[in-house]
Amino acid sequence: MNKNNFLEMIEQSNINNHKKYLSQVLRPAFDIVRNTDTELRMGGSRFGGAPDLPIGSEWPMYEKKPYRFLGQINFTEITSTERGLPSKGLLSLFVANDNYEDVYLEAFEDGYIHGIYIPETNNLETLMPPHSDTGKTTVIEFFPTIDIPYDEYQMKDWPFDEVESDIYTEIRDSLHKSSDYLLGYPSHYTLAYDPTPGSEWIPLLTVDSDESLEWCWHDGDKLMIFIEKERLNNLDFSRLKSDAG
Fold it and tell me: Which of 36, 54, 64, 239 has the most CB atoms around it within 10 Å of its CB?
């Protein structure tokens, strides 16, 4: 889906009177689709399993407890003229492990998400988790699309009545082939507010709960990870925020 396709779809819908407004809130996004037929490769994009980090790296910790590996994104595998993302490098993402009773972080607390950006993907090695259990893993692929706000909490002035809101939701759902994606707008199940931390922040990654990967965010909801625009431009992933719901 691209901008022209989207605007054509709006013209043919019953919310075509909001075409100008919708064209102003469009954002690029990248759907994440799992490819179970492709084997893992060093430095390749994946969910779950074990990360590929520079040789000699140590496993990231918080409060003397090891993080859990969420996945890694190789930005060279993302092709689009409207990227909004680095053109190269590998980003490894980790989440606070909720199996520790003595050290527990909520998804919205600082430190829940830990990112490691590797500019060059030479001299990598697969680092096994301290508990040695890598869990399920899958190769992921990226498909460019566009996105519009998920709900009225993400727009300053919600212009749709009840009937139009249903049409809007159907159109928004049609833009994504997956509930996991990069950029765009955050989506959720239960939140009654915009989870974006502030005007200087943008969504980096939205992922759904998944039993096969042993992901359960906030009782089966979605995990949303955010980054400051300036830090993304500077390839600085050292400060990430998140929420779940």
Answer: 54
Gap between the Cα atoms of 239 and 162, Å rounded: 39
Report residue 239 as tokens: 């400060």
The overall pTM is greater than 0.90: yes
Query: What pLDDT, in 10s, does the model give residues 101-116?
Result: 666 788 999 999 999 9
For 102-140, b/e burial (b = at least 16 CB within 10 A) is: eeebebeeeebbbbbebeebeebeebebeeeeeeeebbb
Crossing angle between the packed helical segments 162-174 and 3-11, to the nearest 10 degrees: 150
Phi and psi (nearest 5°) for 166?
-65, -40
SS (H, E, C) 107-126: CCCCCCEEEEEECCCCCEEE
Which token pair is 28?
A: 């690029």
**155 and 186 Cβ atoms separated by less than 8 Å:** no
Length of the chain: 245
Cα distance between residue 211 and residue 119, in whole Å: 32
Establish how many alpha carbons lie within 13 A of residue 123's alpha carbon, considering only the half-sphere containing its beta carbon: 7
pLDDT digits (tens, 9 = 90+) for 35-91: 988 889 999 999 999 999 999 999 999 988 899 999 999 999 998 766 789 999 999
